[in-house]
Amino acid sequence: MNLKPSSKKSALTEKDGIPQPGSFSKSSLEKIVESRKVQPTSKELFEGIWAGNITSLSRSITLVESTNPAHLAKANEIINACLPHANKSIRIGITGVPGVGKSTFIEAFGSYLTSLGKKVAVLTVDPSSTISHGSILGDKTRMEELVKDKNAYIRPSASGETLGGVARKTRETIILCEAGGFDTIIIETVGVGQSETAVHSMVDFFLLLKISGAGDELQGIKRGIMEMADAIVINKADGDNVNKAKLAKTEFNRALHLFPAKSSGWTPIVSTCSSITKEGIDEVWQTITDYFQLVKANHYFEEKRKEQNQYWMMETINDQLKSNFYNHPEIIKLLEENKKAVATNRKSPFTAALDLISAYFK
Hints:
The chain is an alpha/beta fold. It is built from 15 helices and seven strands. It has a seven-stranded parallel β-sheet with strand order 3-2-4-1-5-6-7, with helices on both faces. Helix 2 crosses helix 4 and helix 14 (329-343) packs antiparallel against helix 15 (349-361).
């Protein structure tokens, strides 16, 4: 038997390919790394915001949202610089249960506003996981058309540990967006039932989105949320759902008559719309326009803004006291000791809390 290797070259022999170029330029990468090391000053960030630079606005919002104490002073400098240029927008809060179509509605509504020449900033709040503490932040993906609009800015933020799902620094973010030239600020809540009060305290107009045909009519007739709403919009009024939406509109109109008149002098309006066909979107904007004409004429607009400023001053004090407490070196040490004492029933939770507070103020 001949065991010598064949002299013929196999057809399966792999040929040397063309060497592929690197996926990135080393010099470009070094420039990017170096540029990121250079942190702009608060003055440079403010000047960027004032000039309409979205990167400066986004970086400033990141500083405002940061829980790092080192960022607090810089964030406050930017906010104080923006204040004289703020308060020139209208602020609209939009809430509704999950699945009502908030993101789709905001995209249709925001696109309609930009077509009128408005500059729209959308501040969305995504729920954070209580287990992993992560957040999807998928609103920019859901609003794929609006995100490409040069006159729109979408900023998703994680709710963190804030009760009700309103981002801790949403109020300050509004100021930065207003200084950046955005004349219409839209705030979308998580829609979990607890965030409405917080959003109501930072907006001029509160819009409640509802859907029909899902048992939502009865759930919506609740005193708290109905009293806060300046308008109720029945969304998804298209296809086979048109008649159901009209019926829901009638039911909500009847429910509104059960509540006392608003101090603004405004009578809430119920309407229907479709975020898909854009039917009724212009009517929603007309309702909001009518509202602002009324409240600015009777001076309710200015009074409400003053009350909101005072409210957020108190909220900021509470927030800062809480932050200082948990970051105090002595409290950090005592907190672990007291946790163990409470866990082993050597001390009651209330006694432990009072001991910690007494230690802090000493």
